[in-house]
Design a protein that fits this description.
Helices cover about 65% and strands about 5% of the residues. It is mainly alpha-helical. A hairpin with a 2-residue loop joins strand 1 and strand 2. The chain is globular. The N terminus is likely disordered.
Length: about 350
């Protein structure tokens, strides 16, 4: 450890959670093999999936976004197309661009292939985060459990908003977790990596702004925990913000490019947040044989939904985790590690609620 204005700076900030060839254990080798196995799974099965209910409108929006830039920003039809202006096209625009290069490829096959591969990238991010926090064995366990969850390995072909967004968010949480021990002097590459993840997340949904909130919360709490004077804390906050500034500029640029509506007016991002918090659909759903409007389901709906949808090994792991925590809470609860896990827990809950709204 070295000192910076009364605040501890962990020299382990150079760690990545990726073992070198000499450091590789059997768990890390199995993880790499598992990733390649998932790539093969995607390549062999991406043509077997149908079109989801919103893929057509998403692809149409991506095509409008392409025409917006191809016309020199004069074709603004995308800003009035349904409610799609509330979303970004960080997935749809690259698909349209690839279709321009290879027009003979099926639109839906290309979307499903790319979305499936993005899902594998999300698995890699999950493994990196778990490995960084608790070692390669936990990394292997995390990716296996996630792959066994049909809400990921099945949905990653056709949910071309949810899966890319979740992938960007998990990489954002991973890079932010690596940033924590580096504060206040964050390496440029790490800051840009966080900015890239944040920008791509914002280029898909306004919910990507949670990563910015996580970063602000981490900097605030780490600054408050400094052992020096308040002057040292303020200096810590300033240096932390300064080191992350290039990454935040990259994030803003990506958001503006993939979601141009967000920068047309100063209040557009708050309007998108408000809209997402009050989405209403005229759709019915069934709970225990009773038909409900989706905005009038009982409070037990989401817990039951998660119990049905989550893989049994995941549920067993959650139960075991709660039992272990209850038995050994006094040794497990450490302030610094708790801070690292805050974004993971909050994001998991937010993604569950968001995905449920999309399904209904």
């Amino acid at each position: 450890m070295m000192m910076d204005g009364g605040c501890n700076v962990d020299t382990r900030c150079v760690a990545t959670g990726v073992p070198t060839k000499r450091q590789r254990t059997w768990e890390s080798r199995l993880s790499i093999l598992f990733y390649w196995g998932m790539v093969v799974f995607v390549v062999l099965t991406f043509r077997r999936h149908g079109i989801s209910n919103d893929e057509l409108v998403q692809h149409t929006y991506g095509d409008m976004l392409w025409r917006y830039y191809a016309s020199g920003l004069t074709d603004t039809s995308l800003f009035s197309y349904r409610n799609l202006y509330l979303y970004g096209g960080a997935f749809d625009l690259p698909v349209v661009a690839l279709l321009k290069l290879v027009p003979s490829v099926s639109i839906w096959d290309l979307r499903h292939l790319l979305s499936g591969l993005v899902g594998v990238v999300g698995l890699v991010g999950t493994g990196r985060l778990a490995t960084y926090l608790y070692g390669p064995r936990m990394g292997l366990l995390a990716i296996v459990l996630l792959a066994l969850c049909g809400m990921w390995s099945g949905a990653m072909f056709t949910h071309t908003k949810d899966i890319p967004f979740a992938t960007a968010m998990i990489w954002g949480v991973y890079t932010l977790t690596r940033i924590v021990p580096c504060l206040p002097q964050v390496p440029l590459s790490l800051g840009l990596g966080f900015g890239l993840s944040t920008g791509l997340a914002l280029g898909l949904r306004v919910g990507g702004g949670l990563l910015v909130c996580y970063a602000a919360l981490v900097i605030l709490v780490c600054g408050v925990s400094c052992s020096g004077l308040w002057r040292d804390r303020v200096l810590f906050w300033f240096r932390s913000a300064r080191s992350l500034f290039p990454g935040m500029c990259l994030a803003f640029a990506l958001m503006a490019f993939f979601w141009p509506w967000s920068v047309q007016e100063f209040d557009h991002v708050p309007l998108a947040i408000k809209a997402f918090s009050n989405f209403s659909f005229e759709i019915d759903t069934i709970v225990a044989g009773t038909v409900y409007q989706v905005d009038d389901v009982p409070r037990t709906y989401l817990p039951i939904y998660l119990l049905v949808k989550m893989a049994e090994p995941v549920l067993l792991g959650l139960v075991c985790g709660v039992l272990v925590f209850a038995i050994r809470w006094h040794t497990l609860v450490q302030v610094r590690q708790s801070i690292l896990w805050v974004p993971v827990v909050v994001q998991e809950e937010a993604m569950s609620l968001q995905q449920e709204r999309q399904k209904r």
